[in-house]
Amino acid sequence: MNSMILKEGIRLNAFEETRFKSEYLSLNLLCPSELIKVGASALLPSVISQANARYPDSVRLNRALEEAYNTSFACRMFRIGDTRIQPFAVSWLSDRYVPDGFGTEEFALGFLRDCLLEPKLENGVFPVGELQNQIRNRIDDLNAEKNNKQRYAIKQCVRLMCEGDPFSIPLGGSEKELQNTSARDLYDYYRTILEKAPIEIYYFGRKNGEQIGEEIVKRFSPLFTEKGCVPPDVPAQKRGDIVHKTESALAQQSVLCLGYKTEITLCHPLHAAQVVMKEILSDSPVSLLFTEVREKESLCYYCSSLSETGKGLFIISAGVDRKNAKRAKQAILEQIERLKRGEFSDDLLYLAKKALINSYKDLYDSPAYLEAWYLRRRLAGREDAPLDMAKRVEAVTKEMIVACAEALMLDTVFLLDGRKGGPSHE
């Protein structure tokens, strides 16, 4: 990777890569919490993806992409730790594979510029009609999210674990926040992040860093303003008491979430060991939770975990029958205690390492995965490559995994209690 500063707050990360038939460029606007307007940040990707000044409706916009050998454009919003990321990305068939001399790169870079810097406006703001359409769509999405019981339960668990922390605010906002976002609010937010948000740029293609850097400076010069900075993540604060919360849901099964806090974040010396621990506990096909809780005791339909390394969160979720929720919780806790005692085989440790090392090698086959890898580490102040991580994983010992397990502190127990109706309750 060739990394260079184009301007203070704007960095280009270029991978000169000729293995792929397509090339890829993304501009990631890094929005710390002080820049975020929740409703606007949730709506901007969908509004800006529908049209721009050159292609004033979605039909013409999508037709142009199809005619340019299925060039693709993506604009969404996601979060890494305390930072919300607003990416604008385009992928195109490399010119050397285009038979008729059509300049796919020229089209793709111009299209990206149009979407980012020349959106469709009415009376100096985003079109009110399109905004209202997207508000309705986003509210429908929020309602549909409640049907994904596992996702909903995890979101509620995170909210409880991070009360008072900006991380507890859902990415999609609330129905009220969406409805209260005006066309002027949305445009002002758009202008604010263009002006103030630092930008991480990723390029995968046949040009070297200097060549694509010149193209970016020439085409996207309005973005080259004085940028702010992205503050480091603040790990979630630990507390003395465990929070227990139960909420009723109209569902055939319940979802149990155990939320842990840990001091082991992405920059911690034991981070690689925590990744191996997660593989042993829940991610491997022969993991402790799968073999012991699901297969041997038949206490859950699934049992998985996720971690937010910037915030020091580690969450286990399991789909259970409500009558088995208490037993499932105890069985999961027992597997955590096994880890603390180092009661897992050398074979399981070997298989976990092997799977992880292979997955890190596979990252090099996907520009999107590599971008996600480096962006997360850049925000944490790290520069290591996937193969560097593979070496650290190989060096993980049983004692290191025991230390990771001992660092887990149970913070929140959330149960989405599946039953035939009934109000939510404590």
Architecture overview:
The chain has 426 residues and is an alpha+beta fold. The chain is 43% helix and 21% strand. The chain has two domains: 2-223, Cytochrome Bc1 Complex, Chain A, domain 1, CATH 3.30.830.10; 243-419, Cytochrome Bc1 Complex, Chain A, domain 1 (2-Layer Sandwich), CATH 3.30.830.10. The chain has helices at 38-48, 58-67, 104-117, 128-145, 149-161, 175-179, 183-196, 209-219, 271-283, 288-296, 325-341, 346-362, 367-380, 386-394, 398-406, and strands at residues 2-7, 10-16, 22-31, 72-75, 78-80, 83-93, 199-205, 243-250, 254-261, 302-308, 313-320, 409-419. The strands form two sheets. Strands 1, 2, 3, 4, 5, 6 and 7 form a seven-stranded mixed β-sheet that branches. The chain has a five-stranded mixed β-sheet with strand order 8-12-9-11-10, sandwiched between helices. Mean pLDDT is 94; it is low at 422-426.
Topology, please?
Elements: E1 2-7, E2 10-16, E3 22-31, H1 38-48, H2 58-67, E4 72-75, E5 78-80, E6 83-93, H3 104-117, H4 128-145, H5 149-161, H6 175-179, H7 183-196, E7 199-205, H8 209-219, E8 243-250, E9 254-261, H9 271-283, H10 288-296, E10 302-308, E11 313-320, H11 325-341, H12 346-362, H13 367-380, H14 386-394, H15 398-406, E12 409-419
Parallel strand pairs: 2-7, 8-12
Antiparallel strand pairs: 1-2, 3-6, 3-7, 4-6, 5-6, 9-11, 9-12, 10-11
Helix pairs in contact: 1-4, 1-7, 9-12, 9-15, 10-11, 11-15, 12-14
